């Protein structure tokens, strides 16, 4: 055994073990190189894909800007077209025969639905302080102004207000809500037209009943009478008069009215420089005094008893605007 297992054999065995370890190390390094090469290939592919996506995003962003520009152009065109068409319709609706023709066409309900949605969108954008404010001469303002004018003229005709009182409760409710959203002094012409439409609708018994039962009515009247525009205050008082002069309506509102209505504001309007507003405010106070007397068990004054009958064409509230 000593002759066989000598130092040469032991050296040989160590050398073979070293060679095996070296071979194993070389194999491991080769595997790592292959893994690195594979990862590098995947990285290059991912970078190329990322670069392609960036190029696609740039192209899509450019297309998006172009589409936005086209949509804005289309919006401006449609708004201008709508404003022009509705202004023409507003002018045509000043004739009672035109209102009758519109009713006979059978599309009035669809038109009123569109009008209500358009008014609601415009005014809610108007009260959103984050949005750019519209000017009084914008196409959007002229569009909704013409829509409100058409509704006002429809309500000025007997058959038109009959339709509004029976089939347009959503529109009437929307107009009441929107008047409450609009800030004092903002777009007074639009407020005046909506108030005139509501005022004309109260000539109809069903319309008067619907409007008088709205819970937001008295707070709305308080809000509108604080408006700095005299025409808004005038139309608000006229709408109020149409309610307080109705024997069947006012007694049910008397308690809430006496508790929350700002009579001091009406007293202030009596001293207005606007002659019609001054006269209407004075008449309103007299009517309120008569109604208060009636609710207390007295009799109404002759002035209230001479309240014009509904649908009286001589009444100023159903004049075509």
Automatic annotation (TrEMBL):
Keywords: Stress response. SUPFAM superfamilies: ARM repeat. It comes from the Eukaryota. The keyword Thylakoid does not apply. This is Heat shock factor 2-binding protein isoform X3. It comes from Danio rerio.
